[in-house]
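Whether sequence alone determines local backbone shape is best considered at the level of individual chains. Part of our work consisted of pairing the sequence of a single chain with a tokenised description of its backbone. This step matters because it turns folding into a mapping between discrete strings. For completeness, the protein is quoted in full, as a sequence line and a line of structure tokens:

_____
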Amino acid sequence: MNQPQPGRRTRSPAETTVLVVDDDAMMRTLVGRTLKTEGFQVWTAANAPDARQVLSRLNGPLDLLLTDVAMPGGMGPQLAGEVRREHGRVRVLYMSSYSRKDLSGHGIDLGKEELLAKPFMPAQLLERVRQCLAA
């Protein structure tokens, strides 16, 4: 498990804003509810164009982009690049039912970003979100 970097203040979930982007409404709802139950400030979007609209209304910093890799209207890695250009250093956690190897075989490079394999349990989601935010 990653430990917070020295000199860096760990923020509480209530101080942490997460944007969840997934075209599957049930997955988006499950992830959003799980994070909200833990106190995170959660925004949701069904695809990249919706995410852009949400971001234009966001007051304050975005701490984590939790996005599906492959969605109609844009791919997660491209969305992550756009978000970082507009919002600076934002942590990214990808979700996918495909393995990193399968994604790579289709020309999708996630770089060093984390990948959370679908399906997952709420406890797994929370653990990975906390790890990502602490890195």
Notes: The longest strand covers residues 91-96. The radius of gyration is 14 Å. Residues 1-8 have pLDDT under 50 and may be disordered. Strands lie at 17-21, 41-45, 64-68, 91-96, 114-117.
